[in-house]
TrEMBL record, chain A:
The gene is mrdA. It comes from the Bacteria. This is Penicillin-binding protein 2. It is found in: Cell membrane; Membrane. The keyword Glycoprotein does not apply.
TrEMBL record, chain B:
It comes from Cyclobacterium plantarum. InterPro entries: Cell_cycle_FtsW-rel_CS, FtsW/RodA, RodA/MrdB. Keywords: Cell membrane, Cell shape, Cell wall biogenesis/degradation, Glycosyltransferase, Membrane, Peptidoglycan synthesis, Transferase, Transmembrane, Transmembrane helix. It is a multi-pass membrane protein. The keyword Cell wall biogenesis/degradation applies. Pfam families: FTSW_RODA_SPOVE. The keyword Iron-sulfur does not apply. It is found in: Membrane. It comes from the Bacteria. The chain crosses the membrane at residues 12-34, 54-73, 80-97, 148-175, 187-203, 209-225, 232-249, 325-346, 358-385, 391-410. This is Cell wall polymerase.
Amino acid sequence: MYTGRSLVVAVSIGMIALVLLGKLFLIQVTDDSYLRKAERNAIQRVVDHPYRGLVYDRNNSLMVFNDPVFDLMVIPKEFELEDTTRFCDLFGIEKQVLIDGFNAAKNYSWVKPSPLIKQISKEEFGRVQDFLIDYRGLFVMTRSVRAYPQSAASNALGYIGEINASQLNRDSTRYYVQGDYVGLSGIESYYEPELRGRKGVKYKLVNVRGIEKGAFKNGDLDTLSLPGENLQATIDLDLQVYGEKLMQGKRGSVVAIEPKTGEILTMISAPVYDPNILTGARFGENYQSLNMDPEKPLFNRPIMAMYPPGSIFKIVQSLIGMQEGILTPNTTYPCNRALVNCHNHPSPVNLFGAIRNSCNPYYHQAFRQVINQEVSSNTYEDTQIGLDKWRESVMKFGLGSQLGIDMHGEKGGSIPSSELYDRIYGKGRWKYSTIYSLSIGQGEMLVTPLQMANLAAIFANKGYYYTPHLIRAIDGDPSRIPEKFKTKRDTGIDTDHFDLIQDAMAAALSGTAARAIMKDITIAGKTGTAQNPAGEDHSVFIAFAPKEDPKIAIAVYVENAGWGGRAAASTASLLIEKYLTGEINRPELEEYVLQGEFIY
Amino acid sequence: MRQKDTYFHKIDWIAIGLYFALVFVGWINIYAAVYDEQNATSIFDYSINSGKQLIWIGTAVLLITLIMVADYRLFQNLSLILYIIFVIILFLTPFIGKEINGQRAWFELGIFRLQPAEFTKFATALALAKLMENPTFDLAKFGHQLKALGIIGLPVALIMLQPDTGTAMVYSSFFIMLYREGMPQKYYLFALSLIGLSILTLLITNNWYLYGGLGAIVLLLILASKKTWKNFAGIFLLGILMFAYTYSLDYVVEKLPPHQQNRIMVLFDPDVDPLGVGWNVTQSKIAIGSGGLFGKGYLEGTQTKFDFVPEQHTDFIFCTLGEEFGWIGSLIMISLFVIFLLRLVFLAERQKTRFSRIYGYCVIGLLFFHFAVNIAMTIGLFPVVGIPLPFFSYGGSSLWSFTILLFIFIKLDSHRIQILGRSY
């Protein structure tokens, strides 16, 4: 039957059918890209963002919580707008913002929702909620932003923000995606793994218009989000708030530590900023202006600013001298101002008197004996050996390297080594007369306010410290804090040597910082001045109290405030009073501190 | 073989069986295409298209019965009158039809809509058979060729007025019948070369390659031919014509309305217009391509259920089958169709009259054209033209017209002994 032209017709039919089957085989069997595209079409991966962990203070007052905000979403295909002006008035936006937002949404997808107005506050949402039904193609998606009920401790807590490209690259676990929020500084950054919780994923089936049509595989692949863990900070929020009030109009740092545990009670970087401005829709704008501010509020002074320790370092010198056997309570030196300048006080002085009067020539002479112990007959070599041995002792006080606080970006300060002087002057070309300013805490030495507060804690503890830290419990469990914060660190100085130091520090107050003295509580303190080649010196004060059973150790820096006693000591004294008694009974001192403005 | 003498046994039950198999598979695919998981109703529900299609199938069975009990001479006698009636209706459609999607191609009868152009197909087939049944009709003669082309050209011209390019293109399928009846081969060779050249012109964006290729062909022909001046002149003229053709094709494509231009260009690059014409092709390919070897299972196709392919229950019904039954399902369905067509070729060849055979080849051509072009467009091998997949696509007009078309032939075939052949 199939002959001639009818055969040609039959064969043509078969051939074309084979072409169709061949092409079908290519797209159905050999090419799996269509399967993936089909999944992209119909399966929507919806990430369920966990609730970020909260932060409480040491007395369980809330420091950080999550505040709901509302994103107004638009589906361009369904969106209709007759009265643009009314809409813009209602939502308080410019017409151009609406147009740009709508165009951006349209470019993303005609049928899928995208944000039109981001992060509408609770209050504003309440106002516009009832009008939303008047508009087609609009709906609201709830998210949350961080909020701070007391607007305090911004630099300790840090802030969260969208993850940046380099952080994404470093994330080897591939947990984060573009647009995720992560802790960018402070506690938020250091405890990111605990605070973030775990994201959940839901796979939903959607139709061509992006409308949900149920769960994919009955939700078998879905995971629930796990909320982040709550943290308890070591901060005393009342003290923190009060300290920030005292530091108003000043530039500087306050760090207060509970000596027996290393828990940081207060950490202030002044000028302070309100942490609530670095949340929500205005993050970018506010971050920019903070970043441009000449006072550098984002610079976390307690752990990043470095100053010469000044007179306060004389206490460390005294302790090392005693431990070395070079100084005893009875060692006296004349106040020889030919060596180094001093101020008026009786002379000669013993060790107690030297601390109390902060006698410079005393330490010039004592330090020479610590450094030049005549181990070597060569003066240069002897100095080098002495310096390196001394440096080792100093570093046991937590100076010269990072303490290891639970914040990123901590600076270590510096304690000079013989290599440093070899680099500066050349090997064998420097001796004691080159480095003597170290004796009174000047010269090539830098410490951070945190290290200074830690020194106060060491003096209070008579020789040991715990690494200062900001978190005392994770998810209610104190044992889960990092191991390094539970390790007692010894300075290698005998406990006995501290009695004289503590007595001298208590006595020093009446001389150099009489304003700081309290009636009922003995404060042991030491003033200092951090030399500032650029202007007025910085006022420094460290203290601990009560002397008999120290509960708080504190370091206060007020930049450009001149000689130590005036600003820093009064601030420290008020904070000690506040922490130990819970109230302030010296309004005139408070007034004095509040009025002292040193920024301008 | 006494039993076979009854009329009942003269009917070709194989073709009828295949017809019902295709209609059944089409019907369950229509249900899948309109199926809504969250609001699932029965396949028999008359409010959804699968239920409506069942009504169309039922009425088609009525039509079949009418055709089978009618006098077989009726179709021969009425062929010209039917043709004239439908041409007049076609002529009137643009004036009184209902406009849908920019085309005035529909008549509204109560809740049902009918598309006259669908029915003109079998009327034209009958008219062609009537014209060409005369033994003196000879397709080798130019005048006779013109007569046949006139019968075909008239409805084409009227359909183009609607305008419905897809349906108009369907009439080119009569060339299959014309080929069988002796149309000179050279026309087909010429047409095939032209199609090849067109594809190359559109595929190759840098025209200099094309001109270079044409030059090479001319050179080869000159080398291969007998070296006479007449041959040289002929080949040279051919070269000029090919050059002029490719040049003018590019020009014409550029002058086409953008939507038609896109329909052509999208064949070569679906990203030309990803959200417009490209959307249909892209989504259709995704639906079919995601089916894999065995498919996702009946009513399990996500692309089908969630409406990613527009017009899925009508022109793009093949997507449903491709997605839910995979390549194996496509293989079975295409095989079914090929067997069906080859059976019809067999039937056509056993006819004793020219009228029946010519009509049979018209049926074969029409069904084959619809079948091949429809599937080809769903997988991006052919521009998107709105023509249905015979027996599969949802719609009364299309099912009725294909049923009438087919069963007139089956009716004629069942009387092949009685019809007195007027000699070949």
